[in-house]
Prior knowledge:
Blueprint: H1 11-20, E1 33-34, E2 44-56, E3 85-89, H2 101-109, E4 114-121, H3 124-129, E5 134-139, E6 148-153, E7 157-159, E8 162-164, E9 169-173, E10 177-181, H4 186-208, H5 213-220
Parallel strand pairs: 2-3, 3-4, 4-5
Antiparallel strand pairs: 1-5, 2-6, 2-9, 7-8, 9-10
Helix pairs in contact: 1-4, 4-5
Amino acid sequence: MDISTLLQYNACDISDALLRLNVTSGGVLPDISLRGQRPTKQEAFAAPASTVLFVPKGATPPPSAPQANIPKGSHWADLAVPDTFVVIQQPRGQTNAVLGGIMALRMKQLKARGIVVDGRVRDVGELRDTGMPIWSKGLSTVGAGASSSPHAVQVPLDIDGTVVRPGDIIFSDSNNGVVCVPQELVSQVAELLPGLVEADDRVKLEVQRGTSVQEAFKKHRGKA
Length: 224
């Protein structure tokens, strides 16, 4: 599975291809913002996903939760898988962070490629200092221990309708956001992308010449 082809495109292109392949969410991980490195131009990264699931501290996990699998005496950040994009899910409605500077630094030392948090982070300056693309839905000043407990690693996560499984490809685009590509669809996405982008370029040229969007779409997107 060669993911380098994907890096020639942006996150919007990737989502367009996934929609053509009937991935109804388009693979988007919605409502997240870049907290880590601040590039001067658009930068794209892609790497297989590894995952971390947090649950409410002191509460019994719901029946739908996977079995706990973090070894006793281990810190979840020490379990980061090299050369992966670490995707972390926090319980909804919490105001504490689940990622801070120390954990991000540890994962960088373990050669993580980036981090996406479906939840909150803190120590934003330290996150930037790692040089990694780090994304989150929100910010906090409060550490994870206030309300969250790490529960399991390398388990599927459902993030607002997009399921992220270990090994799926996380595509990070500093301008447009983050998309998850199911690993079994990477080759099909790569095959679709050139035609989709070429069709959009033709549509833009038509619109610049004064053609209506409806006419341009009918003429070119139907052939993509």
